[in-house]
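re: ur msg from earlier - yeah i can do the protoporphyrin IX containing FE complex, just paste it... oh wait u already did. ok heres what im feeding in:
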Amino acid sequence: MRDRYTNLQIALHWAIVLMIPIQYLTGGSIDRTHHAVHMGIEPSAWDILQHKVHNYCGMAIGALMALRLIVRLRSERTAFPSDVMGVVALALHWAFYAAIICQAALGLVASYLTFRVAPLHVAGAWIILGMVALHVAAAFWHALVKRDDVLERMLPRKN
Ligand code: HEM
Ligand code: HEM
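and the outut:
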């Protein structure tokens, strides 16, 4: 077992971290675009642009997360403590793969097949937000309170 993540895993982790906030910043434009169309009004160009960014960035996130899952399954495992907190952390990591891939798939279905799944996508956004809050709090707890090497495992090597 290795004691840190590979450079590819680290690059994919931080690329996705940068892309997820874009989804929260652009998500609201979709409702506004649809509302304008239903009211017979021309949607604003800014909302249409955000709508496109949301769809394409979301699809890229889904693809990168799927790639990351394959890399994770094929790489040598990173060591984890076998206590309760270690098991909870590992469970949250797997839940992230499931939640983010499902979220991108639900967005795709809502946009191109049936809008009936949209409420699940909206609920998914809140669930992922809660998971990110827990995950980030845990990362800071390790870095600032426990002062161990957990955050370092996910940072690029200096040498
Ligand atoms: C993991 C990636 C994604 C995240 C985190 C995400 C997040 C969000 C958020 C926060 C909203 C706004 C919810 C609200 O109005 O309260 C939203 C709406 C929406 N997203 Fe995404 N999204 C993702 C991927 C996608 C993809 C790939 C598509 C389509 C190709 C998509 C299509 C939509 C649609 C159609 C809505 C409007 C739903 C509604 O207003 O009821 N999303 N998304
Ligand atoms: C959108 C936000 C984020 C998502 C979806 C996410 C997702 C993940 C996933 C799935 C893993 C497990 C890696 C694996 O085993 O394959 C992981 C590990 C990790 N993440 Fe994040 N992460 C996010 C944000 C952050 C942020 C903001 C930080 C730091 C402040 C962070 C720090 C870490 C650390 C330190 C690990 C390694 C933990 C360990 O294995 O001991 N993450 N993250």
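cool cool. The domain at 7-153 is CATH 1.20.950 (Fumarate Reductase Cytochrome B subunit). ping me if u need the other ligands too
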